[in-house]
Amino acid sequence: MTAKLFSRLSVRLWLDAAMILLFVTSLAFRMTGRTAHEWIGLFLGILFCVHTAINLGWYRGIFKGKYSMRRILNTSTNLALMAAMTVLCVTGILNSRHIFGFSQYFDGENIRQIHSIAAYWGLVLIGVHTGLHWEMILSTLRSTFRKMLEGNAAVYALRGLAVLVAVYGVWSSFDRDMGSKLFLGFSFDFWNPGRPLALFFTNNMSIIGLYAVISHYAQIGVKHLSQGVCMKPLLCAFATLFLAMGEGI
Description:
Blueprint: H1 2-5, H2 8-26, H3 29-32, H4 34-54, H5 56-60, H6 69-94, H7 108-132, H8 134-144, H9 151-175, H10 178-182, H11 197-226, H12 237-248
Helix pairs in contact: 2-4, 6-7, 7-11, 9-11, 11-12
């Protein structure tokens, strides 16, 4: 198992997991304070650059080959996430007070607003990106933890967990007022200090999970539709969803 844990693909997944953890931690600006927030953002930016360098082959092939609906979804998500992270890094540097000291030269409020909106769109896009790559992630986990993920019990347990995460993610989206944060509303974050800090992390992780579940099953639904399983998407939406749930995990 040790060799599998440190295979090339596994290392990439560990890198992605570290980025997600740092990303969610960076959202806890009110709890960590500005200095810690800047250092967390800096480490996240470094990992983002490493992630981009590892996946340069994907960028080189972006104009090669044919584009299926699945590839369009993946490419659009990757580029949108790349844009959000780039905006996040640039605005973070411009608004830096302790590490780079650029905040005195720029209009801080507007930059913070853009920074915040990019962060919460990043949260959503990370979930979509994860969901679109879930088959690869699950394949790696199965090869590493074969005994734990074999059998019908594990399959149904994962499906049940996906449903619970999605339901909790819907509640968390309202609790965190994601609509306002995403669509040019009041994007600056607030967290009642009387609430448990662990709840902040579980709420944000569940939002990632919600969009991961939606995008994963939507991708499977698109595949079924493209194969002619359902020729009338609106009339067969429920049938497609059941097909996706049957194949997805």
